[in-house]
Structure formats: structure tokens, C-alpha cells
Amino acid sequence: VFETSGGRELYKMTSHENWVLATVFGVDSKRFVSVGRDRAAKLVDAEKGQFLENVNQLRSELSAVARHPKKDVIVIGGEDRIPYIYTMDRPRNIKVGEEATLVRKLDAQDGPIYALDWSADGQRIAVAGAGKQVNIYDAESGAKLSSCTGHSAGIYSVAFSPDGSRLATGGFDGQVRIYNASDCTLQKAMVPVPLETSAGGTR
User: Fold this and answer.
1) 129: which of 79, 82, 114, 153 fits an S-S bond (Cβ 3.0–4.6 Å)?
2) Kind and range of the H or E run holding 132
């Protein structure tokens, strides 16, 4: 964890047993959740660097996490293709094997999950991964609202616009695509880095 003003390292967290692939702060910035290849979504005290507990039950490698814009509720996803929505706090004392922090599961995707985003109004969740489409879900009910298609390979990045009207995606095919977030109508597709053709070929 680094100090943003000067780049000074504050502390190093060592509770993960393998690569850490994504992190997200809680609403008040006093805690964060990190996910990775050790299958754990770890809740950490951001001020002390102290590991608090695992938010989830361990299932498969995790590669993505996103948080509700106004609540300490997260969605995680990875190798097993299922997005899981969890609260960061236990609602009550739980028994061994009980998963009281799990809010709901969303549909299994067509491949491992690589990217997640939550719309600014908290109403929708976008899920992207090895499949060729981004699926958008109602965050409250878990119902699938639409699927944004057009990519020819896996999708590694997804983001709602601040006003929630558009969705940007990017993936293995080198294209960034902008969709209407309400019905997944493609508005624009582009190569974000200009390519020049030289005598020796494209560079």
C-alpha cells in the first residue's frame, strides 16, 4: 500500500499465498478487499495493514472485484465463472461452514471472469471474461438485463461511464467498444493506439 501524495510505501500485506490480481477500497477508505489466485477475498484494515478475515468461502482462483458505489458490498469473480455478491461485514455471528456474507450468485458465464464493474447508481453490474460478451445484471434481483456482443475473443476490461449511460469494454482482439448501457447497442469500436504502416509492415 502506497501513499498517493509522494509514492511512499506504507506497508506490505503478506496474507495472500499467491498472486494478488485486484483490490478495492471500502466506502470510507478504512478497509479494502484484495483477491487473487489463492481463491480468497481478503478484508484488510487499510490504516494498519492488518488482515481481518476472508469475506468469501474459498472456491476457485479470483481475478476481479468491484464495489457498490455507496455500500460495503462487493462482487467477485474468477476461474469458476460465477460472480458472487458479498457484504464486507458479517451480519451476525456465523457457524463454521456457514456463508452469511453471501448476498447472491449471478449466472455462470461462458468462461473465467476477468473484469467487473458496478454502475454509479448501484443498480447494475457488468461482468466480462473469457467469453465474447459482457453481461449486465440487475444488482438487486440478479436478473440478466442485456448482453453486449461484438468482441471476437476474451474481454479484460469493462467500465460504466459516470452517468451510467455507456459501457466501455476492451479485450484480446485489440478493440475498445462503447455500448449503450441500457440495451447494449454498439455506439463505437476503435483501436485505441494509432497504428502506422511502414515499408517493413505495420508498427
Assistant:
1) 114
2) none
